[in-house]
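Researcher: Structure for this, please.
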Amino acid sequence: MIYQKAAFDYNDLAEKLWLISNQAYTHGSPWTKTQFLTDLQQPHTDYLIAIEANEIVGFLGFSRVVDEVEITNIAVNLTSQGKGHARQLLKALIQQEKANDVFQVFLEVRKSNERAKCLYESEKFRVLGIRKSYYQQPVEDAFIMSTKLKTETMK
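Model: Predicted structure, token format:
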């Protein structure tokens, strides 16, 4: 099941998101617990939370500005990876944001994260460019990827 951030206590949720992020990313969580909490409290951000057997197994964080969405985080805990949770979260976001008249969804992904890049490409994301030295610890370039949800922008 997929839930919105509003269904959770933000303090508890920030802790759980950090734990998942810290184990899911090869180099640890790019965000602190405090950064997750601050992001959860913002009116322009939202999170989709994947639940299995009453446990949070993954999440997708994003911000929406007018008719564009940027995915800021997507992670699935190690024991639940490979079960389709990331794809389920991505599809839920796309379906939800099409209904919200969003034109385009953006994200950044490490150049070395081939598994994630393949997932995004399978959901019609395409590489737009490269952000040099975008990631730290270790320093690495990022692919900027996007998918269009509509053929025209809002008028």
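Researcher: Any notable elements?
Model: The chain has one domain: 2-148. The chain has four helices and seven strands.
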